Amino acid sequence: MTDQSVILVNLLKVEPANCDRLLGLLKQNTETVIRTLAGWTSTRLIAAKDRTSVVIYSEWESAGAVEAMRNDPRMQACFPEISALASLTSVIGATVFSEAG
């Protein structure tokens, strides 16, 4: 994993009525905090059509950058509000195959 970016995938389960609020919070946090952090490369927010799930797909330069993001006080301040709206499961990994047409 040292020669390629680290992928962080977060799956959030949310009540459909709270999906727009969650997406707004995630977008704002990405624009004001995430994009300022060392090692961040990109973020995509993906909402399920039924509004019960949101995926955050982000790329980072290293696992250390992900850990630093999680420990950033601005992120720590945001976690309770996100937790109030959705449950969260995270996976950290690396791309092992990619194809585009």
Descriptive report:
The protein is α+β, with helices and mostly antiparallel strands. The chain has a single domain (6-93), classed as 2-Layer Sandwich (Alpha-Beta Plaits). It has 3 helices and 4 strands. Strands 2-3-1-4 form a 4-stranded antiparallel β-sheet. Helix 1 runs antiparallel to helix 3. The longest helix has 14 residues, at 19-32. The radius of gyration is 14 Å and the shape is globular. The mean pLDDT is 94.
Overall pLDDT metric: 94
Number of domains: 1
Low-confidence parts, pLDDT < 50 over ≥5 residues? none
Report the principal-axis shape: globular
Helix content: 25-40%
Number of discrete helical segments: 3
Q: What share of the residues does DSSP label as strand, in percent?
A: 25-35%
Number of strands: 4
Return the CATH class.
Alpha Beta
In spatial order, strands of the major sheet run 2-3-1-4
Give me the secondary-structure category.
alpha+beta
Radius of gyration: 14 Å
End-to-end Cα distance, whole Å, is 25 Å
- Main beta-sheet annotation: 4 strands, antiparallel
CATH architecture: 2-Layer Sandwich
Order of helices and strands: EHEEHHE
From the 3D structure, determine the CATH topology. Alpha-Beta Plaits
